[in-house]
Structures are given as structure tokens and as C-alpha cells.
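Supplementary Methods S3. Input chains for the assembly prediction are listed below.
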Amino acid sequence: MLGAVINLAYLLGALAFVLGLRRLSSPDTAKRGNRLAAIGMGIAIVATLLTPGGNGTLIWILSAMLIGALIGWRAATKVEMTAMPQLVSIFNGLGGASAVVLGGLELYRIVGGAQSVSTNEILILLLTLFIGGVAFTGSILAYLKLDGKVWDETITLPRHSLINGIFLLGLVAFMAYLCLFPAQLTTGVLVLFTVLTLIYGLSFVAPIGGADMPVVISLLNSFTGLSAAAAGLIYGNQIMLVGGILVGASGTILTVLMCNAMNRSLFNVLIGGFSASGGASKTASGDQNVIEVGLSDLAIQMYYSKKVMVVPGYGLAVAQAQKACKELDELLEANQVEVKYAIHPVAGRMPGHMNVLLAEVDIPYNKLLDLEEANAEFKDTDVVIVVGANDVVNPSAEDDPGSSIYGMPVLQVWNAKQVIVLKRSMRPGYAGIQNPLFFHEKTKMLFGDAKDSLQKLVSEVKNQ
Amino acid sequence: MDQLIAFFNEHLLMLYLLLFTIILGFEIIAKVPTVLHTPLMSGANAISGVVIIGGILLVKQAAADDWLLLAGGSIAIVLGMINVVGGFAVTDRMLDMFKKKKS
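Predicted C-alpha cells for the full assembly:
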């Protein structure tokens, strides 16, 4: 009887995952979808707790759950919204770490001879350990990179993609060897394999930088799902399998969608693509002049235009400038200036990053235009304000075959009557290439911190 | 090889489940608007914390004096629980923002 109840609970949990993910795909139902998935997880956990046996160890389980829940809740409710991508990355890493511990312990039991075991089980456990391990250290490195704690830029050894390829082949061979000769699996070998796996995770993410981080996080997310699914196979647990595979599949699709938005292949992203090319670009001539704009001139210009388009980028998130942006928006709207936002699919550090930030300050949905909509509207736009974006407005992507971002769809801001670029300095964007937009005849620059500049602009507009 | 065939026969239903779930995962995600990519990734990330179930099962199977399994399994549970609770909570917070602007 109890067994049937538990199985039914798992079935309901799996159903909640599927329906929850489905509802997460539409703005109207997303919140309910997330809660439904959370309820499904709750049901699955309670059902597992009710599984017969091991009542003496229940205190360990419950205290561990309490500690984890408290830490998770605190981190999720305290963090700034701009630091969200990092947080998702670190959560994902911890999930991977959990799979590593599980796989490692189960393999250790095999070493100890506690149970007889088949080749398939060893293979699945090694895969759990391997995939989870890559997700773990990869996500942690992604977190550190996004948070600017270690290397802001990409880190590469000479021929890094080749090294990674050989490394991966080596690990696969290692796994095959252990499957064929299970007797060779000693504690020392297990530790060695784990350490190599963790190092590979770091090496896997090392050459990937800045704008490509969302792609990697999404990919690592699907890895964590796959390792959970592999662990599910070991325990013969359907909900682990269904949940893990759902995440594995959805993460893969999401990864591909993100790559498509940048017009790049996943392979290209993974080898740290940008650094490889771009030498022959024609933007090499260094002595071009940029024109700076005065604050009051700009304020007047904006105040009397019909339509202003804001192009937000990572700089907006870093400077926490979304509030100032909203203020400017309200002042302009009060004077019948139409204000819209052009959102490039890969602006910021995660897809939808900009949407979330702008939503945080109550900027209405219908003001946010996607790439195609925005490009259709630039022609009738009087002023475009680029706030901390760079590569997504680079005309080289359209007219310079030598450029490393050639072919990536960009926002054609230069079709507007005037472009103002708010930027800290002339430093190139993530792609590390010069942006001819800054030297364009229609472009004027406003140097400084995005928030600072926008706030000054707000007070100037107020004076009109 | 014999072992593989045995595995295949033994786990046939599991393999069906695997196959259909993969297809389901692809189909669900293919229709998502870009704005929801971040919350979706975050929500999916929370679901991947389902690995915590394995941690609970492991500790349940452990003998009361097997400190390594108890401690290790508990660590797996703590990590998984952070992933689950943190993941769902942060997704909820993200989606709150979408809600506000609709009204």
C-alpha cells in the first residue's frame, strides 16, 4: 500500500515538473508554473522520506534538508537582481556537486565490495560523477568570472581547444577502462578520476568569456540535469530520471537558441571563438575622432524629439542604472516623447536579463521591442541612446567580412537620426574589437558611468 | 555484450521513458519567448536539484554507524536542497517582476 502511494506521488511529481515547465514558457502562467514545479519537488521529497527503512538516519536527512533550505532561501531572497546570473550559476554548480558526492559515494561502496555490481552500473556511476563534476567546477568558474572575482577575460593555454579535446578523450578512455576492468577501481583510482573530472570542468569553461557565459551556464544546467538522471537510473527512481532528462533536454534547446541568437555555432562558442579570428578587420586605422555631446544639448534634443529608443546592455546592469532610466522615461513621456527599448537577444549576461532589469523598475512590457521590431522602427527614431551596450550595435557585423562578429544580427541603430552612446571609456566590448559606430557621423559619445550620466541627464531634462 | 542485452531487456520501460522525456523536453522549450529564457533556465535549474532524492535514498540505506555515508550523503542533501529551494525562490522573485508590469 505504502509503495503504491509513493509511486503515485512520484507520478504526480513528474506531472508537476512537465506542466510546470510548460507553464514557465508563457508570461501569463510562468509564476504558477514555477510554483507547480516546486510543489512537484515537495511531493517527491516527502514521498522519498516515506520510503520504508532507514528511520534511524532520518535525523541526518532532516537536518541536512533544513540547513540547505535555509542557505538556499537566504541566498535567493538577499541577492541583488543584477547578480542573478551568477546566483543561478552557483546553484547549478551545487546541484552538480551533489551528483558528484552521490556518484563518488556509490562507487566507493563498490570499491568496498559492499555490493556486487554490473558493468552498466559502474558506467552510469562514472557518468554521474563525470557530468556532475564538469557541471560543478564549470559553474563555479562561470560564477567567479561573472562576478568579476577572478579572471574577467578568457583564460587560454596555447591550443586550448586541442588540449580540452585530448583531455575529454582521455577521460572517456579512463571510463571505458574502468568499465572493462572493474577490479582496477580502487579508492586511489576513484579519487584520481574525480580530481581529473573537476579539473576538466575548469578547463572546459576557462576559454569562454563574457557574452558567451549565458550559453555556458545553460549548457552546464543541462549537464546537471543529465547527471541527476544518471543517478536516477542507479536508484531506479523515475522522478529523478524524468526531472533530470527534462532539464537536460530543455537546457540543450535553450543553449542552441542562444547560440542562434548570436549567429554562432555551439562549437564556436565552446572553443572561445572570438579570439581566433578578426585579425584582418578593416577597423585597424586608429586615429579616428569621436565627438562628445554636452549634457544640456542632449537633454534639449531628447526633450523635443518625437521618439527615443533606449538600447540597454551589460553596462546598464553593472551600473544599476535601470531606475535612472525609468525616471528619464517618465519625464520624456510627460512631454509626449515616445520612449521604447530595443532589446538584443544576447544583451546582458543572460537572455532576458535586460527584460528582467527593466521590469524591476516597472517599465511596461509593450515598450520592449525585440531585434526585428526595433530594427523596423529605427528609421522613425529621433534619438537612440545606447546604454552600456557595444557589440550588439556594431555595424561591422553587417558590412565587414573581416570582423570576427560578421554575420551576427545586430541592432541597426545607425538608421536613426542621431545616436548617443553612453560609455565608460573607449574600451572595446567583450568581442575585443573596435566599434565603428563610435566614429559614425550620426554618433555622439557621452562618457562616464551609465547611472551617473543618466541621473545628470534626468536633472537636465527637469530643467527644460 | 550479453550484459548489455540483459540491461536493455531489463530496463526497457525505463529506456522508453528516457526517450519520450527527451522529446517532451525539446518540445516544451521550443516555444518559449526570449523574455522568459532567464526565468526558464532558473526554473529548470531548480528542477535539476531533483538529485537530492538520490541523497535521501543514500542516507536512508546507510547503516547507523557508517559515518562516511551518513556525512557524505548529508552533504549531498544540503547541496541539493540549496539548489532546489534557492532555485525555485529566485525564479519566483524574477517572475514577480513580470507580474507587476502587467497590471
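Chain B has a mean pLDDT of 85. The helical segments of chain B are 2-10, 12-29, 37-47, 52-61, 67-102.
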